[in-house]
Design a protein that fits this description.
alpha/beta, FAD/NAD(P)-binding domain, Alpha-Beta Plaits, 2 domains, seven-stranded mixed β-sheet, six-stranded mixed β-sheet, 11 helices, 25% strand, globular, binds flavin-adenine dinucleotide, Geranylgeranyl reductase family protein, oxidoreductase activity, acting on the CH-CH group of donors, NAD or NADP as acceptor, FAD-bd, Geranylgeranyl_Rdtase_fam
């Protein structure tokens, strides 16, 4: 017979979304089980970069940002057609004025420990195999195989799916991905290089695809880390006109023509290149149904503007936890359900119009010609124009507006119709 464990909330997956949700829930005094199939530390294919929006969420979680494992960035250095422009993160508004990098090998372990320290019951080596439902189709928990190979039932009135791009928990309940949302792919490789002593995240808008020579429908990056390594990668969106890009070949070709002094060669490579999918644009709407909340990549929360997903996973985790804390004060039934539907409504309020416009821009511009039109010579040489681009891509505007750039961007976004549920 299967073993059985109960909690108020079960979180499937201890990536940034799941660990942050578990930490917020535990801090609210809620009994939470955090189930993770791997054991920490473990790798996760990522660019390892956090914008100020993500840093803000780490501060809200109470993470120590003075730890030497972090590397701070003061902004972004954009490279295109032999030119470069430095844009610092905005120093006003509600976000910190710096970004961070840290390998996911360390970062995810740190966040999982943080959730545990807050009171979450973390079970690693525990692979969730199926959702459990009652006769009405409402989730009542999950089945899993634990580290010692035992089949176990974990029961709770609410489940959070934070199991990443595979979204197995949502799919197992029949919850499909919404059609027409952008689905990118990205690849990264680590190199040992001390060449990047500046404090910028580096982006390239003029990477050429291997084989075709066309502009990559995406961008390339080099993100310096605290341990004298760099995370080098590129990502792109497929389009019916050019089909899928040979990311491996494109990465090799691009890195080969970067300056030799940067040490981006086989001799300095640290491990192989690895790629993964980027589900973007909010792919499961509304994000709550029948006892199940979806957060992070399982809900396709990666920004269609820049391919960033950690900040969004952390922010949605906090909104989900707040929603649940309120809902659990109400008895099971319509009033509790009403409270749970606020999760999706709050996401709409914060991101709906931004994602709707981003989905259109990704489909009509980035997937066709990439980012080069956004960083033309005229834009690169205008500090105001390039700041507008950075703020738009990283959702770094302040609302209420703190300056003219915020005012313009906020006004544009208010004119966009809300995102459909
Ligand atoms: C190449 C690449 C570069 C990227 N670069 C950046 C970047 O620089 N900055 C940024 O913000 N975003 C970046 N992203 C996106 C970012 O990695 C994701 O958005 C982010 O990891 C989402 O977090 P998550 O917690 O939702 O999912 P994940 O990080 O995927 O975590 C899901 C967790 O669930 C666990 N899990 C899965 N199935 C089960 C199961 N059945 N049972 C138990 N546990 C399970 C997994 O083991 C994992 O720990 C990049 C993505 C890629 C592919």
């Amino acid at each position: 017979m299967a073993e059985r464990m109960n909690a108020q909330v079960i979180v499937v997956g201890a990536g940034p979304a799941g660990s942050a949700a578990a930490a917020h829930l535990a801090r609210a005094g809620i009994d939470v089980l955090l189930l993770e199939k791997s054991t920490f530390p473990r790798d996760k294919v990522c660019g390892d970069g956090l914008t100020p929006r993500g840093v803000h969420q780490l501060l809200r979680l109470g993470i120590d940002l003075n730890d030497p494992g972090w590397r701070r960035s003061r902004g972004v250095r954009v490279h295109c057609a032999g030119r470069q422009a430095d844009v610092d993160w905005p120093a006003h508004g509600g976000f910190p004025d710096f970004g961070l990098t840290r390998t996911r090998h360390d970062f995810d372990h740190l966040l999982a420990r943080h959730a545990q320290a807050a009171g979450a019951r973390l079970h690693t080596g525990t692979k969730v195999t199926a959702p459990l439902t009652d006769a009405a189709g409402r989730l009542t928990g999950v089945t899993a195989v634990t580290a010692d190979g035992a089949a176990t039932e974990f029961r709770a009135p609410l489940v959070i799916a934070a199991d990443g791009a595979s979204a197995r928990t949502a799919l197992a309940t029949g919850w499909q991905r919404a059609p027409g949302r952008p689905l990118g792919t990205a690849i990264r490789r680590y190199y040992r290089s001390g060449a990047f002593t500046d404090d910028y995240l580096h982006f390239w808008a003029d990477v050429r695809c291997a084989g075709t020579g066309a502009d990559l429908p995406g961008y390339g990056w080099i993100f310096p880390l605290a341990d004298n390594r760099v995370n080098v990668g590129l990502g792109g969106l497929p389009h019916r006109r050019h089909g899928a890009t040979d990311l491996q070949g494109t990465l090799r070709q691009w890195v080969d023509q970067l300056p030799a002094g940067w040490d981006l060669d086989e001799q300095h490579a640290d491990g192989p290149s690895r790629s993964a999918a980027l589900p973007m644009g909010l792919t499961r709407r509304p994000e709550y149904r029948d006892g199940l909340l979806v957060i992070g990549d399982s809900a396709g929360m990666i920004s269609p503007w820049n391919g960033e997903g950690i900040a969004q996973a952390l922010e949605a985790a906090e909104i989900a936890a707040d929603t649940i804390a309120l809902a659990l004060t109400r008895p099971p039934g319509p009033r509790r359900e009403q409270a749970l539907h606020r999760y999706s409504a709050e996401l709409d309020h914060r991101w709906g119009r931004y994602y709707r416009l981003g989905n259109t821009v990704a489909a009509q511009l980035f997937s066709r010609v990439g980012y080069r039109p956004l960083v033309s010579r005229r834009i690169m040489t205008s500090p105001t124009a390039i700041s507008v681009v950075l703020r738009l891509l990283s959702q770094a505007t302040a609302d209420p507006a703190q300056d003219g750039i915020d005012s313009v961007l906020n006004t544009v976004l208010r004119l966009v119709p809300p995102l459909r549920r």
